[in-house]
Amino acid sequence: MKYSSREDKCSEVAHSILEVALLADDAHIIELCVNGERPAQRQLYEQYSGSVYRLMYRMVGSAHADDLTQQVFLCVFHKLNKFQHRSTFSTWLFRVAANEALQFLRRQHPECRTSCLHDITVETACATDQFDQRDLWEWALSQLEPDLRAIFLLRVIDELSYFEIAMSLDIAEGTVASRLSRARRCLREIISPALDLD
Amino acid sequence: MNCEESQALLSSYIDEELSSDERVQLEVHLDGCTECLADITELRRLAAGYRKLPSPKPPQDLWARINDSLAEPKVRSAMSTVATVIDRDPTPSAKANCLPRRLSLSAGVTVAVALIGFAIHWNIRTPHDDTHRHDPLANYAAQFSTDVLLAQQRLIAQYSGRKITADEAFELVGYRPANVKLPPADLTCDSLYLLDMPCCKCVEAVWTRDDGSGVLIFEHVAAIDDWFKGQPNVQLACAGKQCQIVELGNKFAASWRSEGKTITVVGLRDTAELAAIISALT
Description:
The complex is a heterodimer.
Chain A: H1 6-34, H2 38-60, H3 62-79, H4 89-107, H5 112-115, H6 122-127, H7 133-142, H8 146-157, H9 162-169, H10 173-195
Helix pairs in contact in A: 1-2, 2-3, 2-4, 3-4, 4-8, 4-9, 7-10, 8-10, 9-10
Chain B: H1 3-14, H2 20-31, H3 34-51, H4 62-71, H5 74-77, H6 81-87, H7 92-98, H8 101-124, H9 138-146, H10 148-158, E1 162-164, H11 166-173, E2 187-196, E3 201-209, E4 214-220, E5 233-238, E6 241-248, E7 251-258, E8 261-268, H12 271-281
Antiparallel strand pairs in B: 1-2, 2-3, 3-4, 4-8, 5-6, 6-7, 7-8
Helix pairs in contact in B: 1-2, 1-3, 8-10, 9-10
């Protein structure tokens, strides 16, 4: 790996040390959680609930994000004894979360897979001057196919590597790359005309 | 490298996920192509725009709800995702908008059948008899044509069926069954069962369509060719597999061998659905 400066190298090393420390912390907390220690379960929840909820909120919408986040953590606590540390805990957690969201969306009526995410539509919102840039970005995201949306969120918002996304969604890294490229292309087509990015 | 090849790599480039060779080749192209360079700028603005969106926070009482659920008996929390989602559907308006009534009903029926199955399993199961004639799906097929739910219920009772997760399936049968994979887009995996058949342990996946009807996928190690003994059958090549097809009322079943396992799908509507399922399982 090349470092453009001494500071970059120090920062990278510090980041690696921090990651190792976090992994060690996770392993200890996980062990306690498997033993049913409620304070440890709460700690794990506090550590990861923000990420899981954010993913759920943008995958299934605010109306169902609470329930699916709850379901993810219940599932995680009940299955944690099966976690064999073949991946990081966060990758495993995102796998559970992404599966819950995708399964939920597949149960929905086709029209609900996107439109129930946000009540707002471009036409009505523009007409009432209620449509700010944030709404546009949120709405564009809701128009992506669920599989593409999940990959885009895991990469851009949660900053998972392609390898981690591949592990989380049980797909090949090449598939991650091609779907992410497609997701970005779709979002550009939706957003660029509105924001006049060109 | 031309622009078409470059475009396919831009997304991975801004994510720093290209190999060094690919990166060098792309950068050489970008050096002389203002169009692709502009696209990179735009993709970066797109990502930056999404990173600036406010991050929604989980409700403050969510841990309390999880804590309450953790205190409940395990049998309740082991119920399927769909049961939990329906039990705890948050707002009446959301339910009206996003959960079709037929889905609620079908999922409710599925859970009811699962619970009845468990009840029968615990209350009336008898010691297993290895000499029992192994015709697991012949009676099942006959029952399936008239009453799908009853057929499933009896199968679970007959073979000490119990609900399992994908990870448990792997541990219990010693290999990763194909039927724990995600189903095709228009089907949803509702539940997995482990059936203790005389030949071997069988993993059964229950996949549901949007209208609530089901497709059942059985996977065995044993090479069994008499699943539907006595039933007329035809051979059909579909999606690269040689399938044995048996008519079941207005639906049909298909069996084929794949990677040393026998896969049997019951409740198929047409060969397009069969092809989609074979592709998903392969």
